[in-house]
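From the shared-data thread, chain only:
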Amino acid sequence: MAYVSNTDEQINEMLKVIGVEKFEDLITSIPEKIRVIEKFELFPSLSEAEVVKLLYEYSKKNLNSNDIVSFMGMGAYDHYVPALVNFVIDRTEFKTAYTPYQAEVSQGTLQAMYEFQSMICDLTGMDVANASLLDGASALAEALLMSFAHNRKTHFVFAGTVNPNYLKVCGTITSGKNFQFDFSVSSDGTCNLNLLSDLVSDKTSAVVVQHPNVYGNLEEIDEIEKIAHSKGALLIQVVDPISLGILKSPGEYNVDIVVGEGQPLGIPLSFGGPYLGLFATKQEFIRKLPGRLSGMTIDVEGKRAFVLTLQTREQQIKRERATSNICTNQGLMMLAATVFLAVVGKEGIKEIAEDCFQKAHYLADQISKIPGYKLLTDKPFFREFLVIPPIDAKTIIESGKKVGILPGIDTKRFKELHSGLLISVTEKRTMQEIDNLVDLLSSVSS
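Structure, as tokens:
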């Protein structure tokens, strides 16, 4: 949409209709000390060709993903995106600036939602899934609100180490509810089952477990499930969707609510977003499910039709009594995940997961042989693991950047985590790239 600024005459006409003399009269409630009074220093007027040239020069400052080998993870992973994904989402009937709202939703969009929901149910082993949320962090916050809406309890226990970014988002979104958070974490970051048993009571709304946890380690879900349900609490699991290619599904663990970050499902890293929130649950909780839900029905002519269903739980009907204030979904990213899952299929997800698992364990084994390096724990992990290096992780990362390698994440900046280098491996990493990282770690510490 073209932007043409208002003329002084148009501005004065609007102010007259509003009933004020000048623009400043509209912002009297904003303290003067925080207003920007002086005019901004803007670029001189440029032609279209000059703007394109300028932006091209800026773009060359970005890191080229083809020249960078990434071992970073913690919820955002460098997976291969099949060409068909971008081909579909680039079609004009799908590529919009926002998710179509109720009156504008077409049968094609509704069917894409329905297919996505069905695939997420297959992947997680749950009964029902919504048409997506903003990202994994906000999905977890919505799960806490849904649990509260179900049992009206405000106590939550986190079993094991959960992504600290998710915890911050949960604290912000639920701040008005006065929720109480407790944590059951052992020295290696996994859940302390004895402490969990002591913390969970009949006043607990839900137990939250990330599996694999933020360090990539597998939690004892069977035992956590028994403790949670023995006290009448719900069980919420945060998942890495790729891990479900080889791990038991949440449904097999009797989990009540499943959330996760859908970025690994055909969505590029994109400097941190937009991403995709996954949310699935048991049939019995469907009336409390946040977000949008597409259902299939038969129209008056007996033909298959797709419709938005169960809208009464949303803000436009219940307002302050709504389960959630989410009334849309991450439409374009949801479509990307749908195409990705359709392309790779069940066997493809399994192969990707196995590739991640095997390469990660090879790398962890090689790093363990480097003098001075050790893993946080020897417990089972999927594709992510924390290394305790003999030197500061920041130094390793800076050295890696010089040779086109992002070695991992420095966890020192998270007060909730052990200090170290969090390394993740995807199917894109070749054995040569993995060996190059091992050589880098050896050289910077020698």
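The chain has a mean pLDDT of 92.
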